[in-house]
Amino acid sequence: MDTQSPTPTASSAPPKPLKEIQGVTIRFCGDSGDGMQLTGSEFTRASAIAGNDLQTFPDFPAEIRAPAGTLPGVSGFQIQFSTQPVYTPGDQPDVLVAMNPAALKTNLPDLVSGGMLIVNTSAFNENNLTKAGYTSNPLQDPALTSKYKLFQVDISKLTEKALEGSGLNTKDVGRSKNMFALGMMLWMYGRPTEPTRRFIKEKFAKKAEVAAGNEKALMAGYHFGETAEIFGFTYQVKRAAIAPGTYRNVTGNEGLALGILASTQLSGLKGFLGSYPITPASDVLHELSKHKNFNFSTFQAEDEIAAIGSAIGASFGGSLAYTTSSGPGIALKQEAIGLALTAELPVVIINIQRGGPSTGLPTKTEQADLLQAIHGRNGESPLPVLAANSPSDCFDAVIEASRTAIRYMTPVILLTDGYIANGQEPWLIPDAKSIKAIEVKFRTDPNGYQVYARDPETMARAWVRPGTPGLEHRIGGLEKDQITGNVSYDPINHEQMVHTRADKVAKVAQDIPPTVIYGDEQGGDTLIVGWGSTYGAIFQATERLRAKGRSVSAVHVRWLNPLPPDLGGILKKFKRVLVPEMNLGQLCMILRAKYLVDAKGINKVQGKPFKVSELVARIEEQIDGNRN
Questions:
Q1: Please, is 217 exposed, middle or buried when counting C-beta atoms within 10 Å of its C-beta (0-12, 13-18, 19+)?
Q2: ω before 357 within 30° of 0 (cis)?
Q3: What pLDDT is recorded for position 7?
Q4: Longest Cα pair distance anywhere in the chain, in angstroms?
Q5: Sign of torsion over alpha carbons 560, 562, 567, 572
Q6: Which residues pair with 365 in a beta bridge?
Q7: How far apart are CA 374 and CA 453, in angstroms?
Q8: For residue 466, what is the DSSP state?
Q9: Residue 431 pLDDT
Q10: Spatial distance between the Cα atoms of 414 and 394, rounded to a whole number of angstroms
Q11: Which residues pair with 323 in a beta bridge?
């Protein structure tokens, strides 16, 4: 039904029947200029304030600005929120809000059968239909209404009516339609409007007319939901039972930035980030640049090599140094990472992975840089490598990486990916006093100082600030004498140094806690081994399979080099080991080589994360012998 109702103001309509539901997955989609990311972010904020657990998945187009109305220009934002714990942004949307034909065409196949479909009818004109590849208007196809609950709302026209006399030009009025759509959905799910109204006033503080127009469009959408006859119900998702405390929403990149700042405070060191902008890592640089008050410096370098070079220099000078990038940038940094490894300086290198190779899929997610992180440098050059598993876990992971880098005097690589970087979830803000300090020791005593004399527990050399009296020393990329640090070409010395550097990295394993097995701790039929952002999908898939009576357990590996000391014994307790990864089997290959187990991969390289349902199906195929 196409609705042409006048825009309501304050509602006097009787309340509509309320349905209580446990949770829902909503996807907002439209042209990249339709403000879908902002719409999704504000709906997420409102849902967090309403007390729901949630996870999000923003899906950006790769083009900076594809032609309006075309398939490559579609931008989407998916959120799952619930009264129960949420580990993924949801497999398929229960509700799809499509702002134009291209958004409908690219996203409709994902909508669950019987799901709610809300479309902006004004956008379904001949020009937009042609751009999207439609030969006729899909809204007039009876198959659409037979499969989905279709609600046709002229969002564009209703927004125009709401903003008559606002003083906004046609372009600004058109830009406000996402606020109308947001208001409608806030009403439908009982979300508060005040957080978004406050956001609008802050964002457009210097543009009073724009702020007033957006707020008016928001409330017009809200009141339209209240009064329009096409919506028969409103829905309630009650607060989730979560641990008490203070929460905030974080993306993975925000979690990294906050963890980096916390690490500098825990160590008492000046912080430094040397970085070159690259998708999807740039937001870490943007966020940290706001926090100079924490004795933190950011440097936007002219290229990737300069970025890592500046971080190495900062570390040599006694700062806690970081550099961020994605796969292509890490490839350019590798020689300099080898320099930091040879010089034995603590630098945290953060790789926020994306689809590759080369430029690849800049805005899509992948886990295909694991082997690059472990083996991607020339020579024998091992480094500690670990991975975060969720947006909020980025905070803890980067603190752990920082602690390891300083304790073992080595560069450390931390892996996240685009799915984690841009996704949001509630984060319980920790009590700062509960986080263990990062111990830092700078040597100042010149008595008996040798550059490569080592701590017997960690095999770390001493960290010496340049200019410390009596402790002048040489470090660099040429091989050094194992004690004095003088340049050495002696073959025996070289072999000893190669072994020493490898042994030092292996020592990190002594700090890795026991591996947690979800399921049958004593062993069983099938063990699912995951790492990084597959955590939520694996955990929920394992829950579903166990509920069906399957003997399935799971472990999630944070440390990838070195691997947990107890992992080999755990693998041997199970008849079958399966490794889901968003690559062609990189961790699986490592497990097979190191532990001689017949691990099998469940692989996906589509630029999208695993769905829980597809993992369940593919695990059952392996268990039932339907796939070799």
A1: buried
A2: yes
A3: 39
A4: 88
A5: positive
A6: none
A7: 26
A8: T
A9: 94
A10: 9
A11: 349
Q: Which tens digits make up the pLDDT trace of 288-339?
A: 999 999 999 999 999 999 999 999 999 999 999 999 999 999 999 999 999 9
| pLDDT score recorded for residue 4 | 37
Separation between Cα atoms, residue 465 and residue 317, nearest integer Å? 6
pLDDT band, residue 229 (cuts 50/70/90) = confident
List the structure tokens of 292. Answer: 């100079």
Contact residues for 348 (Cβ-Cβ < 8 A; gap 6+): 260, 320, 321, 322, 323, 398, 401, 402, 405, 411, 412, 414
Work out the mean pLDDT of the chain and round it to a whole number.
95
Helix (H) or strand (E) holding 95: strand 95-98
- How many CB atoms neighbour CB 517 within 10 A? 19
DSSP state of 533: G
Tokens of 203: 């964002």
CA distances from 7 to 11, 160, 549, 623 (A): 11, 9, 53, 56
Answer for the pair 578, 554: CB distance below 8 angstroms, yes or no.
Answer: no
CB 261 within 8 A of CB 291: yes
| Closest C-alpha among 580, 577, 581 to residue 594 | 577
Q: Give residue 136's pLDDT band: very low, low, confident or very high (50, 70, 90).
A: very high
Helix (H, G, I), strand (E, B) or coil at 301: coil
Contact 391, 250 (CB under 8 A): yes
Cα separation of the two ends of the chain? 50
Beta-carbon count within 10 A of 240 CB: 18
Question: Which H helix or E strand runs over 27?
Answer: strand 23-31
Q: How many CB atoms lie within 10 A of CB 239?
A: 10
pLDDT tens for 231-285 read 988 999 999 998 899 999 999 999 999 999 999 999 999 999 999 999 999 999 9
In sequence order, which residues have a C-beta less than 8 Å from that of residue 281 and are 6 or more positions away? Answer: 253, 275, 324, 325, 326, 329, 350, 352, 421
> What tens digit of pLDDT does each residue of 9-37 get?
455 567 889 999 999 999 999 998 899 99
Q: How far apart are CA 353 and CA 363, in angstroms?
A: 10
What is the spatial distance between Cα 263 and Cα 296, in angstroms, rounded to a whole number?
11
Instruction: Please state the three-class secondary structure of 512-560 as a single string.
Output: CCCCCCECCCCCEEEEEEEEHHHHHHHHHHHHHHHHCCCCEEEEEECEE
Does an H or E element contain 150, and which? Answer: strand 149-153
Burial classification of residue 434, based on how many CB atoms lie within 10 Å of its CB (0-12 exposed, 13-18 middle, 19 or more buried): exposed
Q: Which of 56, 66, 135 is nearest to 101 (CA)?
A: 135
Contact between residue 42 and residue 202 where contact means Cβ atoms under 8 Å apart: no
Contact call for residues 392 and 414 (beta carbons, < 8 A): no
User: In whole angstroms, what is the distance from residue 602 CA to residue 599 CA?
Assistant: 10
What's the rounded mean pLDDT across residues 432-444? 96
pLDDT at 416 over 90: yes
Show the tokens assigned to 46.
């409102």
- The whole-number pLDDT of residue 310 equals 98
**pLDDT of 5 higher than 70:** no
